Amino acid sequence: MPGHRHPGPAGDFVARSSALLPLPGDGASALFQVINQRYPKSSTILTANVEIADWATVFGDDTVAAVIIDRLTFDGTII
């Protein structure tokens, strides 16, 4: 599809989890920094069995969860 990037072997970041658990301390901030530095240069894939609507609980902050979701979904695909 024009305008869409597909994951390739170089520079991809894949985080796989059977469940997102609440992140301790500044863990949500650290994850945001990783995602933000990669956006929009490289592919980032995150798998979890937690509904996106519940990510605020995992990240401990509605704003951080919203920004992480924004960075992951902008010009991306949710499967």
Automatic annotation (TrEMBL):
Q: Name the source's superkingdom.
A: Bacteria
Give residue ranges for domain IstB-like ATP-binding.
20-77
Q: Where are the transmembrane segments?
A: none
A single Gene Ontology MF term assigned here is:
ATP binding
Q: Which InterPro entries match?
A: IstB_ATP-bd, P-loop_NTPase
- This chain belongs to the protein called IstB-like ATP binding protein
- The organism named in the record is Saccharopolyspora shandongensis
